[in-house]
Amino acid sequence: MLIDDEERMLELLTLYLKPYPYFCRKAVGAKAGLKFVKEEKFDLILLDIMMPEMNGWEVCREIRQYSDVPIIMVTAREQKEDIVKGLKLGADDYITKPFNEEELVARMDALLRRTRPVNRIEVERLLWDEDQFELSYKKQLVKLTPKEFAIIGLLMKNPGRVFSRNQLIDLVWGIHSETEGRTVDSHVRNMREKIRKVGFPIDDYFHTVWGVGYKWIRK
Q1: How far apart are alpha carbons 66 and 142 in whole angstroms?
Q2: CB–CB of 62/55 below 8 Å?
Q3: Minimal CA–CA distance to 70: which of 94, 35, 36?
Q4: Looking at the UniProt feature table, which residue ranges are given for the DNA-binding region (predicted)?
């Protein structure tokens, strides 16, 4: 849910999020946003502070009376007292305009991971189980290395999102790793072959985006 009194900002946010697996509901102004939140269920709210009819702090306070939906305050104000006020009223995070698109998406992803942990994912009987550290298909165990297990889990958790090789290195190997892109490709190739051998149609779901990276297709 995007709540802002400026239609231009709503369109810009929608454009930013279009390449990612987010469906955006836009609300022009506080009252329209509150109406939507009361009528529908949302995974996350991006909420502007400086709105004329009712500011974002008031909106946040009202939402918290009946919902614990994650809220990120989006505003041009960056004074420390404004940040503290928003967090005290129940906001989960805060980002100031102008913001970097990748930072916004990273904050959204991190907040969703904290508030909605996903430890088990099943697609056509292919089961990724983080707690057991196992990948299986029709109860056949697929023996993956820790890095292979992490890569497929990351993509299955984020269907439709393209991860570049550098992003996978940062997320799986760590930001200080000296791992190269061809190492990622080698892990992906081995993982695909192992999963293909147990009969799962991995190539229908795990796609290479040439020149960019990899993504998991939601069917």
Answers
A1: 44
A2: no
A3: 94
A4: 118-218
Q: Hey, what are 88's tokens? A: 């005290």
Alpha-carbon distance of 19 to 7, in angstroms, equals: 20
- The pTM for the full model equals 0.55
d(CA 108, CA 89): 19
Whole-number Cα distances in Å, 98 to 13, 25, 49, 75, 106: 11, 21, 14, 9, 15
Number of residues that this document lists for the chain: 219
Nearest CA among 42, 49, 87 for reference residue 66: 42
CA nearest 11: which of 2, 20, 23, 21?
Answer: 2
In this predicted model, what pLDDT tens digit does every residue of 129-159 receive, in sequence order?
Answer: 988 899 999 989 999 999 999 999 999 988 8
What tens digit of pLDDT does each residue of 44-75 get? 999 998 898 899 999 999 999 888 899 999 88
- Quickly tell me which residue has 């305050």 as its tokens: 73
Please provide residue 120's backbone torsions phi and psi, each rounded to the nearest 5 degrees: -135, 130
Burial classification of residue 120, based on how many CB atoms lie within 10 Å of its CB (0-12 exposed, 13-18 middle, 19 or more buried): exposed
